[in-house]
Design a protein that fits this description.
This protein has 6 helices and no strands. By secondary structure, it is mostly helical. The chain has 2 domains: about 1-110, no CATH class; about 120-175 and about 200-230, no CATH class.
Length: about 240
Amino acid sequence: MEEYMIRKLTADGRGGGDERKFRSLLVLLQSFFKNPTEEMYDQIKSVVHHLDLAMFRMHANQLAADKGKTALQGRLEEIREEKEAFYRNEVIALQRLNQAKKMRLQNSECIGLVKRIEKLPPRKKTQKQLDVVNEELDKLYVKQKKLEEKLKTRRECLTVLKNVFAMFDQFDDDVQAPPTKRAKGLLSGHESKEEKKERRHKNRESDEYRDRHRYEERRERRSHKAGHSSKRKAIDRY
C-alpha cells in the first residue's frame, strides 16, 4: 500500500495529477476516522511526508522552469543584440566595400592619367619645337612681305601700262577724230579757264587717289604686323 501511494504521488514530477492525489488522501482519511488504527496513522504520516516531498519537487521544478525561462529570455535578448550588431557590421562592411570600389576606380584613373602624362614629350623638346615653329613663322612672314611687295610692284606696273595704253587709245582717237577745242588749245598753247580748272581738278583727284592708296597700304601693313605680333604672343604664351 505504501509503495503504491508513493508511486501514485510521485508519478508526475511537475505537479500533474494533484486532484487524484488529494482524492486518495481523502479516502484514506475517511477510512481512518471510521476505523482509526495505528498502522493507518503511520500510513497517513508517510503519505503526508511524500506529499511534502512532491510539493518541494514541484517548487524546485517551478524555480528551475522560471530560471530556464529567464535564461532563455536573456539568451533571446543576446541573440537579438548579436543580430543587430551583425546587421550594423554588415552595413559598415558594405559602406567600406563601396568606398574601396570608388578608391580602386580613382586609382585606375590616376594610373591612366600618369601614363598619359608620361607619354607627353618633355618641356625642353616642346620648347625646341615651339622655337622651330616661330622660326618658320618668321620665314613665312618675310616671304609673305616679299610677295606683297612684288604684288604691289606688279600692280603699279599694270596701272602704268593701263594708263599708257589708255593714252595710246586716246591719242589714236585724237588722231582719227577731228581736233576738239581742248586739243586746239593744247596745240596752240592756249587753254580756256574751264579747261584749266578741269585739268587742275583731275590732277587733284589723282593726287588724292594716290595719297589714299598709300594710306591704305600703310594701314594694311600695320594691321598685318599687329596680327603677326598677336600670333607671336599667343604662341609664346602657349
